[in-house]
């Protein structure tokens, strides 16, 4: 037998093995698709907010404490289904739990905050929902068992969502502020389009022709959605993060350090430059006006000032998990004597909301979760396309400064980051070019 024939047979055997493995992960792959589709698409259809984008509701903080049976039923049933299938497959669920200790610790601390929550009933309901979401993602990723396949699922679902929102332009009309597609408002579409754009930009040179085609078409369509949405924050993040991620990956490889050191080193340098600039007379309002066209950042600075003043009331423990906004008449915004604050359900800064809900303790744990995830991303950078995981992590961390998504129901940015965090945490800490959790990576069918 010739060498070429041996190589051909080996390639066929490897491909057959991968195809067999892919068929064995069909059910958990469907679970993961449902997780993504529900947060990115199905919930928009169920709520129907895109059909009636009216004025802001000044009573929203009072009425938002009501339960949503559809959401509760979906996530509870999905979590139970994941548990049953994982049990039947005898999936090792806790093998890599140590790598996700900050996530476990944050959920544990959130459970402890039930003791002093403003409205324990609402807080418990939202915390149980979060347990179901985290469990569904954790179990699905563990059963799939291959990071490359997880990445493809995320990209393909994002492509479907982008395609649907582009097609929706034929039946929906732009809002006064920008095109919102099937989302409630244009910033939500902008965030989803930015995630998609970032993901597709990291897969333009993927080894599979199908994946390359999806990424190239999705790259163009998500870019068009970004422009149409007129979401300045998402637009800036979408076009800058891929460059930052590739630069961080290049420096991490060249300096032989983990990307987390590069990321935090860059962030520290940026903070020093900002402090020096402000010390020389440059005001943060001037920076916001240059970047976003307004010194108040569309009212965010007023929200941040209010949220910070409330945080100082309970700086260590917070008001309880998801226990500040939307907890009925107990919501601080309802008696703030500010009509604008009565129309919102978040601080438009995820870190401020973590401080409000779980205090300084919760924020410290969450920073540990983010830092640990960046550290795990170094394993993915050793393979082609691994920049995807780092880029999505960067997007979540930066986007969370302007919109609250961390541990808030099933916000798309939070869901995708959670998938990435669990995936990279379960990757083997090896020096080989390996994307599998337990088996060597082989070409996909």
Structural notes for this entry:
This protein has 16 helices and no strands. By secondary structure, it is mostly helical. The protein has one domain. Helix 11 packs antiparallel against helix 14 and helix 15 crosses helix 16. The N terminus and C terminus are likely disordered.
At a glance:
With 445 residues, the chain is mainly α.
* Average pLDDT figure: 81
Structural class: mainly alpha
Number of helices: 16
Rg, rounded, reads 22 Å
Shape: globular
Which sheet architecture does the biggest sheet show? Answer: none
Count of all domains = 1
Fraction of residues in H or I helices? 55-70%
User: Low-confidence parts lasting 5 or more residues at pLDDT below 50?
Assistant: 1-18, 431-445
Strand content: under 5%
| Multimeric state | single chain
* End-to-end distance: 25 Å
The tally of beta strands, per DSSP, is 0
Sketch the topology as an H/E string, one letter per element: HHHHHHHHHHHHHHHH
Task: List the defining traits of the structure above.
single chain, 445 residues, mainly alpha, disordered N terminus, disordered C terminus
Map the helices and strands:
Blueprint (H helix, E strand, L loop, with lengths): L2 H22 L1 H22 L12 H4 L5 H21 L11 H12 L7 H25 L2 H21 L18 H16 L7 H21 L2 H24 L3 H21 L4 H9 L7 H12 L38 H31 L6 H13 L12 H14 L20
